[in-house]
What we know:
The complex is a heterotrimer.
Chain A: H1 2-35, H2 52-59, H3 61-94, H4 97-112, H5 115-128, H6 135-160, H7 164-171, H8 176-205, H9 208-213, H10 221-229, H11 235-262, H12 267-284
Chain B: H1 9-22, E1 52-58, H2 64-73, E2 78-84, H3 87-95, E3 103-104, H4 108-116, E4 150-163, H5 174-179, E5 188-190, H6 194-204, H7 214-227, E6 231-234, H8 239-244, E7 250-254, H9 255-262, E8 270-273, E9 281-288, H10 295-305, H11 308-318, H12 325-330, H13 333-336, H14 345-348, H15 358-373
Parallel strand pairs in B: 1-2, 1-3, 5-6, 5-7
Antiparallel strand pairs in B: 3-9, 4-7, 4-8, 4-9
Chain C: H1 15-40, E1 44-45, E2 51-52, H2 59-65, H3 67-99, H4 103-114, H5 121-132, H6 137-144, H7 158-183, H8 186-194, H9 199-227, H10 231-236, H11 244-253, H12 258-286
Antiparallel strand pairs in C: 1-2
Helix pairs in contact in C: 1-12, 2-12, 3-7, 3-9, 7-9, 8-9, 9-12, 11-12
Amino acid sequence: MIGQRLGGLVEPGLRVWTGAVYVFLFLPIVVVVIFSFNASRLVDVWSGFSLKWYGTAWTDPSIVNALKTSLIVAGINAVLAITFGTLAAIGMQRVGRRLRTAFETMVYGTIVTPEIVIAIASLLFFVTVNVDLGIPTIVIAHVVYNTSIVALIVRARLVGMDRTLEEAAADLGATPIQTLRRVTIPLLYPAILAGGLLAFTFSFDDFVLTFFVSGATSTTLPLKIFSMLRFGISPVINAVATVMLVVTLTCILGASLLVRRHGRGDGEAGLLLSAARTASEQRAA
Amino acid sequence: MNRIKPSDLTRRDFLVLSAAASGGLILAACGGSVSTGNAAASQAPVGPLENALSIYNWDQYLSPDTLKAFQTKYPTVEVTTATYASNEDMLAKIIAGAKGYDIVVPTGYMVEIMIQKGLLLPLDKRQLANFSHVDARFRNPGYDPGSKYSVPKDWGTTGFGYRTDKVTVPMTSWKDFFDNASKYSGKVTVLDGATETVGMALKYFGYSYNSDNDQELSKAKDLLVKFKRHVGAITSSDYKANLTNGTMYYSMGWNGDFEALQGQTPAPPVKYVVPKEGSELWVDAWAVLKTAPHSVAAHTFINFLLDPKIEAQEAQYTYYAQAESEAVALTPDAIKNDPIVYPTDAVLKPLETRKATAKGQKARDQIFSEFKAA
Amino acid sequence: MLRPSPLRRLGSLPAPLLLAPASLWYVAFFLVPLGFVFVFSFLTSADFGGIEFKFSLDNYPQLLRSAVYLKVFVNTLVMAFSGTVLCLLIGFPLAYFLATRAARFKNLLLVLLIVPFWTSFLTRTYAWLILLSNNGPVSHLLQQANLLHGDLNFLYSYKAVLMGVVYNYLPLMVFPLYVSLERLDKRLLEAAKDLGAGRLETFRRITMPLTMPGILTGCLLVFIPLMGEYVIPSILGGGKFFMIGNLIGDEFVSAHDWAFGSALGMAVIIVLLALIVLYFRVSRRTATPETGL
Lengths: 285, 374, 293
């Protein structure tokens, strides 16, 4: 009987729990965004609405440079990650089981290794082969992780995809490259884009790895925020962080819309979940 | 490359520097080594002024007004700045081969290390006419005899500050600092630097700040490990804000930071103490990297910074003491007469400048790790 | 199970070639650098930083020589374990709720779960410093509600670190849990109810075992990166909770002892590899036909 009574509490209990968790997750974001518009310098007392911190950030050349650097790094990284990741995803579908498992292990390895370990490894590598630390080294290091992200997302899409279109193209005489170019990739378009935008976001926001492999003139926005944060929280940082949030949100929403238009209407989350699902399937296989 | 003299440099250094503080004492000896000028500098003709300059500096350590003034005077030179939070961070980046920086701002002992590792460019004094303004006492520091590779930027002390309203019994020594921790558990902060924190533990026992003696270091370690549980935070930057809002009651820190606290409105009731047993007297210096792509611009900038008027301007931004008497004369009274910034001779007497050895530094790093892990 | 595509047999484009660009990249910029860590762990650090190519076996014994490093390792394992368990306890009900919503809400809720991750990670963590400071909004709120007398004193503590960990790692736990829970055949739950099992028993004997793969994946995805966590203990813990990630970072940045730092890195890699192998063993055993997982 008590079980029944308690049972009735489960559903509303879960509701409250979920609500509480979401409040917890969004509280800092809300604080950051709100105080970026705070008229006074204090970050814990509200004294009126103002856009001046955005102005300060915009007129600070080191902040603008950091933004430029971040955008360049994230952009190049996304392009490379998309290229390698998509090819890899398609390849994974077609190779034999052993090669696939080996490659997959590598993919998971890059995702699961703690960032600090990759960071020091990359630093040692670049220093030993005498490559100057700078934008190229940051991009190189970022692409490792992001290729895997793209590969997983695109593969999830591939798995669920209808293969008959490809086979039909082959039957009609298309060479493998043609099939790839004109059938497979267009069909994968939403997943590729979603993966690319995710890769962009991860690179844009990255800190630990970038800290170790960046050079004199290649300060990214997270690095700049970090050096500003050492002297206390200031509304300028809030303004910069809000800008970063808007940039990444725009990317992700853009990805969602594209997926909805071209795809099965799964949305972003759907793709990520398919990736997770496929991942667990593959492991048990 | 310079050979470092093994003589008792630390004591000589502080004698040299403490004379500058009172501004009037005449120095007895200028240090045993008499190296004049820049024998190491090349005698090749000075090249043209480049159109860029990259400064790798501590954060908030160069007044934006100064930068603007420099850009106005030399509009063809585009200046970029990058920042680091500790000498070690900077050294790590330079060793890792970060190229593109021209100027760095190491503390004295780090200048010495970088000279040893061949990372600095010998200065071309022909391009540093304003070097003549630097007080004689600072021209021949133990860490860089003859100022071959560096010029002094400013100097200061490391000590601690405490909230007089929270800690009602006055504190004057490292003994107070460490012994009171149990009373104010969780309200104490120390600097995030092996050199400083281990050094202060050594001073607690009256040992030298630069001690490499195993037993002494071991006692320092034991003190720190026992003290760890009362530590509120290990930070080189958060302490200002935390003292202001009362989260922390006393913090190890640098004198300029505490001076800046006094300039806040409202100013928190914080008193800065240079402990009786002694502490660190440090000099930060401008230096040019050997790999600097714009060495002429770098020299031009440093020369610009050596102008006493500019130095006085800097002091009003960073709140640190300048190494030129003419600059001191131009500084507003509020700063120039403030004992936090320009302490008296008596206060400076027990201070030492850092002289690092590989073995000693390694020992300090190890102890600091143990402290952090305790 | 997936069939290899018949297209792989056609024509001039061998499928392995498609894997080549990514593979080369991985080898050159992932495996080789890790190899460097291995090599460097057998060299000596130069004075004040850098490396000397002098072979030395001393770095590994140094790991064991001082109890400190072992302590840091253990502390890290404890924190990673605690963080993982917390994420699981908090995330499971959340995932359950999400998995049992109508389709149109599912997506929205899932996207909302990731949105916080699109602010700068550093700023998010620092925002907690604002929120939880002794004179911050949370403190004021609690004081006004009479739930708190005196200072909040939450920051710079172990619980603050754990909170930061949960905050940043929760989605990594929730996603795999959600996948597992969503695929759970609800008819099994109904059948159990029909057979007279109470909610708790159903949960214990049906839900949990069937979602075990998701649980294990979630735990792995949280635990392993958490072992290398660097920023959270430093910011929210006031630098007092020294984890292996901080130690390795310190060795490279502050102490400039690259050789020893590499040895530490190798130790972490080995421990993590062992965990992954363990995970594969355990998950193979718990993957049952019914789950299709």
